Amino acid sequence: MFKNYLITALRRLRYNRSYAVINVLGLALGMTCCLLIFLIIRHESGFDRFHRHFERIYRVVTDETINDKSTHTSGSPIPFAAALRNDFPQIEKAAVSLYNQEGLFSLEREGQVRRFQENRGVVFVEPAFFEIFDFPWLIGDPNSLAEPNTVALTEDLAAKFFPGEDPLGKTIRLDSQIDLKITGVAKNPPAQSDFPFSAMISFKTAPQSGYDLDSWGHLMSNVHTYLLLPPGESAQALESQFPAFTEKYYRDDVARRRYRLQTLSDLHFNPRYGNYGDRTISKTTLWALGLIGFLLLLAACINFINMATAQALQRAREVGVRKVLGAFRGQLVGQFLGETFLIVLFAALFSLALTELLLPSLKTYLGLNIPFHPLQDARLLGFTATLAAAVTLLAGLYPALILSRFTPALALKNKPAAPASGAFNLRRALVIFQFIICQMLIIATIIVSWQLDYFRNKDLGFDQEAVVITPLPRNDAAVLSALRNELLRDSRIHNVSFSFSSAASGIRWDSNLQHTLNGAEEDFVSDLKFADASYLPVYGLKLVTGRNYTESDTISEWVVNETFARKLGLTPDEIVGKTFKLGGRPYLPVVGVVRDFNATSLHEEIRPCLLAARRQSYYEAGVKIDLHNAKEALRHIETCWNAAFPDFLYSYQFLDERVARFYQEEQKTAQLFRVFSGTTIFIGCLGLLGLVSFMAARRTKEVGVRKVLGASVGNILMLFGKEFALLILIAFAVAAPAAYYVMNGWLQDFAYRIQVGAGVFALALGITALIAALTVGYKALRAALANPVESLRYE
Amino acid sequence: MIRLKNIFKYYSNKFVKTYVLQDNSLEIREGEFVTIMGPSGAGKSTLLHIMGMLDSPSSGEYYFYGEPVHRLGEKQRTELHKRRIGFVFQSYHLIDELTVYENLETPLLYQKVKAGERKSMVAEILDRFHMAAKKDLFPQQLSGGQQQLAAIARALIIQPKLILADEPTGNLNSRQGEEIMQVFKQLNEAGTTIVQVTHSERNAAYSERIIHLLDGRIVEDAPVSLVGVAGE
């Protein structure tokens, strides 16, 4: 029996090659998207799960209230861990870590000094860190990190520094100033970890890098406190004891700060706090991805259903014959499901191959290291099998039930009972559903793309063109002035500014100020931008009123932005001359106001900002160059830089590239949207093709009769067009509000966003209509051009 | 063998009921060779389909070997007809994707006959119809007469008690038609009951009894000798 079915199925596929290809292709595309999404979701949700104590590890995070607004940071005070160990004996382990993504290592090999700029994670850690987390050491003992000036390297880094040599006991130098003895080699951290370390330095070394181990006041987002709770210990109970506990150590900020415990499982998904891996993905995004995968699969199944039922007429006779020969309905259902399964099986194999083909580019693109070994991956195989079974049922069951229901007497006359053509039948509902999915994705794609265009074209309040940013490893007066003079010697260098950070930067420094605008001394929180007097011209910041501050090594006067004045209820003209105090300094006057500029990404609103000169805090140089001679200018900068900082490695970035990087995640989202909506549209087109061929077949006689009665080709095309226009409109009525709701929510993430207007929807509708018209047009035209004598012959 | 009582068949849409069969009663005994005749649209095929359980009457009773078919479900009806009734159609209705051999084998598959037995049964019937050489050909590769022979062979492979033939020679030339009718005659002589629908007086002459249908009603039911078939 099985053989008989298999033979029929295979021969059918061979006779109906285009039908088979369309079906296999549609399903394979849908399944490939599902497989890719499955791999992404599995990868993202598996982060750091390999730690034995995964469920019991927590991080201390801080919520702060600033100017009545709440902010969140993953940082906690450096002495927090030690204090925890002291006050809460029930905590199994607590450890502090201080992470810098980059570090410059120099070492002596074969009598030569070699330098390596490492950007894969340089971290100061306490030995207890390795008792909380499972990052095994291959050589040495984590307890060796109890001593200052010790370091452990990962296998990769050890092999890079000392190829073929035993690294143990060797000395390397960090940032040209701290000597470190290698006391161990650790296994490379797995790809699925938010702790991408390559060098682990004893925490006691941190003071040599300028960190104050006893400061409770300072909060840095790269200082993390991790702790391991014993089984059964409640994190909430511990958290509730924090206010009393911290008050004991640091009275000042108890009211403003709240310390919380974040589970390790939340680390990868909570963008509020972030992690050392510098990449979080919200669970909502994963859910959305899963949903898109499901919808894509559904679209592919709908496709299949449409194609299969459109073919039903051709198969009706076979059904009739088999019933006459004694087939039960169940046997026919089995046969048709089997045929579907065969197609799905081809599609599944094809989609595995496609996944293998597409995954590498997706991996590079998303920056994910996702392994793909389908033959050794039981869960992936299981998923594929489940997927195949689900698709077989979803796609195959309805056509199988319809086909097997034909009464043999009618089926043999090729007149199977069918719903009246005017009725609102399932097939139409399915196509409407497909249109809904398509249009929602089109609308989403348009909105994401427009929002990104808006970013690219928005006036940020400063000039991001032709500015080269390069780090300043040292900021002594002599070095800086020599560097400036050297740089300006070349006419291709227009101007140079040294500052804490460029006009737009991922790094923000805010602080409490005091003012006496209302009589008594009051607090006010503002961003700080320390920079030399060239800052305004280099970044094209415009003075609204007053003047620039004068060049100085220390703070002597302020320039503020418009928001700063507005938040204090003053006009720019009013604020000039008012005085503000920072830290232990005297009250100093505001001498000018600059037009507002976006100092961080457009995700955030413009905050009050204070500019002043303070050489000690200059870490970056902004160099305005002549873009027409960029190559020479860059070479000149590199030469000057290397002369100024011979112990360091040069690197640079263009300001506009830095700004563009703020929206990297959105760019990826946009690209994913484009890919998935493109796939959905393609699958949808296949489905439309199926539907219109069904309609053409079903209406052959009607078209013939109409033509005999004098209908023109245009009239006939209208006949088909009207039907699809109606389906598109119904789908649009559902898709537009749904997409509006979802995408409006997405836009809320941005302080600066586009208004979703009628244009988006009109464009989406237009695109859908055009694609549908192109798809339907060909078949409809063929039906319209058919000779009526032919189409009426069999009636 | 077959007893029909007050059989009606109509199709209804929102506004009209269209009667195909109106109040027909009929009995056919084992071993008979019956012809149903009548103009196009008289309901001949519908009556045949009802007898073959491929269609069910809108009302009325149908007993097959005493079994009340009108009370059986689809599954039971299938169970009943697949062992006892063989069908032959005007357009043969072989399955295009299967070879002659596989077409003949299909009814046996549905009866769950074992592989070895199936093989010998197919071989035997191919032999009987002198079609052994054609067993691996597909229907489209055969002439109309050969296709109809294969279809008859397929109907006979289950050794049916009853053969229902709907214009079996309608698509064939006269020589091929003659051959097919000879086969039916032999089968009938060997004890198989045959009911055929035909327009051809010549084919009707092979049978013993002719039922005339007009506008869905049996208007005449008489032995061939009395009807007086005109030998052209």
Instruction: Work out the strand percent of chain A.
Output: 15-25%
Which chains share the greatest interface? A-B, 25 and 30 residues
Percent helix among the residues of chain A?
Answer: 40-55%
Q: What is the radius of gyration of chain A computed over CA atoms, rounded to a whole number of angstroms?
A: 34 Å
Which structural class is indicated by helix and strand composition of chain A? alpha+beta
Number of helices of chain A: 24
What's the total count of β strands of chain B? 10
- What is the arithmetic mean of pLDDT of chain A? 88
CATH architecture of chain B: 3-Layer(aba) Sandwich
Rough shape of chain A? elongated
* Poorly predicted regions of chain B: none
Largest sheet of chain A: 13 strands, mixed
End-to-end separation of chain B in angstroms reads 33 Å
Polypeptide structure, described:
The complex is a heterodimer of chains A (795) and B (232). Chain A is an alpha+beta fold and 795 residues long. Chain A folds into four domains: 1-46 and 288-418, no CATH class; 54-266, no CATH class; 437-459 and 661-795, no CATH class; 474-647, no CATH class. Chain A has 24 helices and 24 strands. In chain A, the strands form three sheets. In chain A, strands 1, 2, 3, 4, 5, 6, 7, 8, 9, 10, 11, 12 and 13 form a 13-stranded mixed β-sheet that branches. Chain B has 232 residues and is an alpha/beta fold. Chain B has one domain: 3-Layer(aba) Sandwich (Rossmann fold). Chain A binds chain B through residues 1, 4, 7-8, 11-12, 15, 317-318, 320-329, 331, 407-410, 412, and chain B through 45-46, 49, 52, 54-55, 74-75, 78, 81-83, 87, 89, 93-98, 102, 105-107, 109-112, 154, 158.
